[in-house]
Design a protein that fits this description.
about 230 residues, mainly alpha, 11 helices, transmembrane, membrane, GDT1 family protein, manganese ion transmembrane transporter activity, calcium ion transmembrane transporter activity
Amino acid sequence: MSFSVVQGFSKSLAMTVLSEIGDKTFFAAAILAMRHPRRLVLSGCLSALIVMTIFSALVGWAAPNLIPRAWTHHITTLLFLGFGLWSLWDAFHDGEAEELAEVEAKLDADLKANGGITKDKNKIDDDLKKQKQPILAQFFSPILLKAFSITFFGEWGDKSQLATIGLAADENPFGVVLGGIIGQALCTTAAVLGGKSLAKQISEKMVALSGGVLFIVFGIQSFLSKVDS
């Protein structure tokens, strides 16, 4: 494995983990897993994140072929520095439980809009249906599709998606995809298995601070590195 792949992999893995832990999609996966079968929630959320990672990396890989590489390099540098400052701002100005409460309120509103079924009854019904349904029917179940759509559209235009595009434009795209997918798998599995109890223990402030520092380090490194011709 070449150095460029390893560098792209390590950067993408670190960036993904620090961007996704405590993110809205992380909390959404944790809450959905309490209300529906974990296997379906994990499949839906993770498949959405994998699709988004591959798509973002392809956009980043194509960018240097459409515009001069020097431009994409400088844009990536500015993105990393900007996201670093943005994360640090969030760390000092947002309440720690704000995102979790926001996501839970939104999902509760969706639940009431769909008939006001209680969480426990909904999960029991889902488990019974899961036992009766064939594998293919479970794969296209409304729960899996709901988890996929909430995660996919929650990530669209998000800081982590734009950062993946920038990283793939400046690093080896294969390494970026591999690191991103492994990072997404780790975070999503932790959210689904740990549930809301794990989500409540995470300090969003510390995650935002760590992510901010990491983005700024990436930005400085990008600024100091030479542009490949």
